[in-house]
Amino acid sequence: xxxxxxxxxxxxxxxxxxxxxxxxxxxxxxxxxxxxxxxxxxxxxxxxxxxxxxxxxxxxxxxxxxxxxxxxxxxxxxxxxxxxxxxxxxxxxxxxxxxxxxxxxxxxxxxxxxxxxxxxxxxxxxx
Amino acid sequence: xxxxxxxxxxxxxxxxxxxxxxxxxxxxxxxxxxxxxxxxxxxxxxxxxxxxxxxxxxxxxxxxxxxxxxxxxxxxxxxxxxxxxxxxxxxxxxxxxxxxxxxxxxxxxxxxxxxxxxxxxxxxxxxxxxxxxxxxxxxxxxxxxxxxxxxxxxxxxxxxxxxxxxxxxxxxxxxxxxxxxxxxxxxxxxxxxxxxxxxxxxxxxxxxxxx
Amino acid sequence: xxxxxxxxxxxxxxxxxxxxxxxxxxxxxxxxxxxxxxxxxxxxxxxxxxxxxxxxxxxxxxxxxxxxxxxxxxxxxxxxxxxxxxxxxxxxxxxxxxxxxxxxxxxxxxxxxxxxxxxxxxxxxxxxxxxxxxxxxxxxxxxxxxxxxxxxxxxxxxxxxxxxxxxxxxxxxxxxxxxxxxxxxxxxxxxxxxxxxxxxxxxxxxxxxxxxxxxxxxxxxxxxxxxxxxxxxxxxxxxxxxxxxxxxxxxxxxxxxxxxxxxxxxxxxxxxxxxxxxxxxxxxxxxxxxxxxxxxxxxxxxxxxxxxxxxxxxxxxxxxxxxxxxxxxxxxxxxxxxxxxxxxxxxxxxxxxxxxxxxxxxxxxxxxxxxxxxxxxxxxxxxxxxxxxxxxxxxxxxxxxxxxxxxxxxxxxxxxxxxxxxxxxxxxxxxxxxxxxxxxxxxxxxxxxxxxxxxxxxxxxxxxxxxxxxxxxxxxxxxxxxxxxxxxxxxxxxxxxxxxxxxxxxxxxxxxxxxxxxxxxxxxxxxxxxxxxxxxxxxxxxxxxxxxxxxxxxxxxxxxxxx
Lengths: 127, 211, 563
Description:
The structure holds three protein chains of three kinds.
Chain A: H1 9-30, H2 35-57, H3 74-92, H4 94-126
Helix pairs in contact in A: 1-2, 3-4
Chain B: H1 6-38, H2 54-77, E1 92-99, E2 102-107, E3 112-115, E4 123-127, E5 131-138, E6 143-147, E7 152-156, E8 162-167, E9 172-180, E10 193-198, H3 200-210
Chain C: E1 3-4, E2 9-12, H1 25-29, H2 34-63, H3 73-107, H4 116-135, H5 163-192, H6 205-235, H7 247-265, H8 268-281, H9 289-303, H10 319-328, H11 330-344, H12 353-375, H13 378-384, H14 388-418, H15 424-450, H16 467-497, E3 526-527, H17 535-541, E4 547-550
Helix pairs in contact in C: 2-3, 2-4, 2-16, 3-4, 3-5, 3-14, 4-5, 5-6, 6-7, 6-8, 6-9, 8-11, 8-12, 8-14, 9-11, 12-14, 12-15, 14-15, 15-16
């Protein structure tokens, strides 16, 4: 019974290569302007770098036994809504940005606490 | 610049594309109906048959690529456009300026300007079968100069001059023959103009009177 | 940790009573369970679909005949702006991501999402964005009214003053960031949480299509987020797009670099579901799976390289390059269609409602695809760009693609999510009304556009004689509305009274059918062996039952389980 799980980066790397070819065709045969190599070439580069990151990092990620997710994460909801309030504050005024910012700090604290508890539970479970 | 017959440019391509598209649609529709009826079954046996055939699919992909290549060649051959043998004479220079929400047509060589207002729909006067060289610009947001009868439009930008040329082949008065095609705000839908294509002699007489 | 057993998976007919106490609304909305996040995202997105659709109905009522009957120009402009914005930012993108969040972990045999907090945060950013966008209607100058594309300088502070427009820009940033976060979570999940034995090529078609989608999201969405931030800065007085005459064109490049891939983002996952539905309901594996996977990757890559075709009429891009790439799309699209037909050929087809909607997708999306090849040719586009021809084209890809695909997915996966079937007769009524409505609403628009009716206009001149076609289109739109209504009735009814089913009512091929309906918190108690992209089908082919359904009080023989 095979337990292997082949790596995930090849499709992304292939995709990055596709984008590179498309960029090349545009620049070489059609003399496309700055925007094409910048945008499409940039996307190609990003995809290739991300594929590299995926390839390199797979050895170090421990995800087996990851069942220490909490049932819910109210801190995340709080944080997301605070960010939304900050965004609304860009239009409505600095007062809202500051309120949202304060709430966001609380939210970040909450998420950090949750993550710590999660890690502790994971250590506990592995003992 | 070579005079472009925008109508020919359109129809040369359209007359090939639409029959192909219709044929493809009918073939696929027919296949779906045929396959749906032919292979409809209440049996829960797993049918025999292969799940893939890479040579078939590669061949098919090559066929599709050939169709794509053909369409691209056809399209490229009509860009910038087909020369219109009928267009003769000295090109007429028109400056088109769009501003929210009307048009201004200026004839620099005649020193004449046609300004659209709330009460006056501007008229674009052009001689028939003559190259018209147009320079377009906008005073505010992006607009688009669109003459459906000629199967052509071109966007005009603020602080930029876009140049193109057209040939108008049928004399006549098209009321509401021109529109703004790029959404430009509140009265975008009311930004139409008339197109008056005049026989050459008549245009010459008008030009004399106007300058 | 799931056990992989060489014998069929043993699956309870229903989750044990009391195995999961009824959650409070608060718990559901802050859950890290991918199924809850996915479902909440889908439901919220569908609500926005209903809102956006109502705006469309209002527009169609006004356009039925010449003369402004009950709307002003300004209100009309708000309506089409928010209609398009709702449908893209608040409905289509979130709904396909929601479907992915629910079903990708199931299809890959995972118990959870990787980084579920990202997905949860993503939902709330999207929801908040939606509220913010609609808040524009409550402001003095109204909601944004510059089109969902927000072209510059129409969208600058000069031409579009008012905080409603600012809300729109910020809402787009929120919703798009939300989608990006959910996609990152999906990408991580696919990369790291596939059950052992599931190589990439053993992932099902839907998961592959979702992966290709995520590639487009992570490269395209950040560009929009940055562009909108720059737009807002310009609106606040910092010269970005207003700093040079090239600003408006630069804006279009940046916008469409996101704007084209997004239309693929909203239909790709549904191509995957439709493929799986056609395969399941033809009792075959999808034909040419590996070629299709390659073609999906190529399709999504090419889609990143075609954005200039929205700018053909500007004469500021290489029309030839973008015409080449746009026309090239017909190759992978044709391969997908070949797959649909070749799967049906030689199959044993059942026409249950998921299959009907899948066929509807195939035919309606085709109209969009073929007319898409037309507008990929600049000489044709010079005429039909910014007219109702293009409106018809993209409504066929969006309505035929996203909406029909979504209805196919809903009718297919509703039993998995709820443990009940949707009613087949109401479903058929929905199908007929939506299909006929789609034809009646949008075919006349091809003609209107060819005759020169431009888009984004509240009214038209009687001298054009466009009234008949507009009337047919309006009737079609209300037919669609009626179809959606029948679906809502079906939904409400079936949630209480729908026929109860077990884990696998359709004889499915993929892992989501190897667990109870609905699945328990961590998805699986056991999994069948993974030897291909169709594990359950493999077992059936070997003559073995893929599941042994065990009731808690008694064993349920296979024949008694509704098919």
